Amino acid sequence: MNAASPESGIQAEADRCVKCGLCLPHCPTWQVHHREGDSPRGRIELIAALAGGQMEPSPGLRARLDGCLLCRACESVCPARVPFGHLMDQARERWPVQGIWWSRLFCSGIGRILLRFGFWLTTVSGLARVSGPLLGLLPDSIMLQRKRMLDAKGPLVGLFTGCVSDVVDRVTLNDAASLLEHCGARVAWVEGSGCCGALDRHQGRAANADAHVRGNAERINLRAFDRLVSIATGCSAELMDYPHLLDSAEAMEWEGKPCEVMAYLASQQEKLSFRPLQKTVLLHHPCSARNVLRDTGSAVRLLQKIPQLNVIESRHSQCCGAAGVAMFRTPQTARALAGDIVEEVSRREAEILVTANIGCALHLRGAFRAAGLDVAIKHPVNLLREQLQDRTCVE
Hey, which residues does 160 pair with through a beta bridge? Predict the structure, then answer.
């Protein structure tokens, strides 16, 4: 085997696994199915066998690899520091995920136009309030972006709109812009931005993902911005990896510029004060925040600044089941994992669930509707914006 072949790189990373099994209790798919092939250790064995030619791809084997949610919880407890996320991305590039061809359209410009029209049609017709496998994901309303006046002072912050938030969550984009301006930033909507590339990369379409990366690098004049802020933790994680994915000259421009919105606001929290709110909030930490960005504290600190708000961090520390398009690819697993959070919200009598990832929010909204649970789901910036003490300067 050529030392530079993709198989050799896969084999080298797989060989770092010492088969200790410490990852098993932290793996959501192992917790649901209790099969070795649905654990990180088992998947690494299968990947190594494929790369070494001891096994050929089969439907059953592919199902085990495709079932991984790429939550990367295993990485946080691995004593051998196996880069499982990178290993799985490499494996899926060699053996792409099957059966989700429509996600390519979703990440494209044409797909966003069609999706925007679909959301508008279902919203005005009232279908967004109907439960169903797909309709349950629809938001209750869509707010169009409003034009903003830029102050002549303060750092210039680019607001990354992406492909999903730009279509279904402009309320949160507006709220984020208002909070950023309240902290003294000048906010510019980065309208030319497209998909960050994460959806394609984690399904094995590395060439498509790299095309998104290059496209964003070309369209976004990052030198004009002091920071590039994203409201979705999944996008933030991918954007922060751009310096490792671009040529050296472009990589230097991106180094240190991308930032998740809660981290940015937490760095400016002394400029924010809030009105009291007597409610109980269950704070859900997305996998991308917990296991990739390694930042759960920013959201906690900011929400705790709201007087009288009872902030409870979710004890359900595993993936909610959304995992990009996994909620469609492995719906049984997704429903089981979401069910644990539905039960926790009900048991702890939370009135609001807060999560900073759009995929988690859409998935859990559908799960709550299916369960008949009347609990609001908000991004942290929605709640912070609603309770902002002095809102006159950001209206």
Answer: 190, 230
Q: What phi-psi label fits residue 375: left (phi over 0), alpha (psi between -120 and 50 degrees) or beta? A: beta
Q: Domain locations in the chain?
A: 6-94, 106-266, 271-386
Residues 6+ apart with CB under 8 A from 34: none
Q: How many CB atoms lie within 10 A of CB 347?
A: 9
Q: Give 106-266's CATH code, choosing from 3.30.300, 3.30.1490, 3.40.50, 1.10.530.
A: 3.40.50
- Superfamily classification of domain 6-94: Alpha-helical ferredoxin (1.10.1060.10)
Of the candidates 160, 162, 157, 161, the one whose C-alpha atom is nearest the C-alpha of residue 180 is 157
Supply 49's token pair. Answer: 């066998």
Average pLDDT along the chain, 395 residues, taken 10 residues at a time: 63 90 92 91 91 84 87 92 90 74 53 54 50 44 45 82 75 92 90 81 85 89 90 91 85 88 94 94 92 92 95 85 83 90 90 91 89 91 92 45
pLDDT of amino acid 392: 46
pLDDT at 176: 94
Specify the pLDDT at position 137: 44
Element (H, E) at 384: helix 380-386
Task: Name the amino acid, one letter, at 359.
Answer: G
What lies within 8 Å, CB to CB, of 53 at 6+ separation is: none
Q: ∠ at Cα 321 (316, 323), nearest 5°? A: 120
Do 6-94 and 271-386 agree at the fold level?
Answer: no
The conformation of residue 288, written as its DSSP 8-state character, comes to I
Contact 120, 130 (CB under 8 A): no
CA max distance for the chain? 66
Element housing 156 (H / E): strand 156-160
**CATH number of the domain located at residue range(s) 271-386 in this protein:** 3.40.50.1860
Please state, in angstroms and as integers, the Cα–Cα distance from residue 338 to each residue in 3, 317, 365, 366, following that order.
Answer: 43, 12, 10, 9
User: Of the candidates 81, 58, 68, which has an alpha carbon nearest to the alpha carbon of residue 202?
Assistant: 68
Nearest to residue 180, comparing CAs of 262, 285, 253, 294? 262
Beta-carbon count within 10 A of 124 CB: 10
Beta carbons of 232 and 261 less than 8 angstroms apart = no
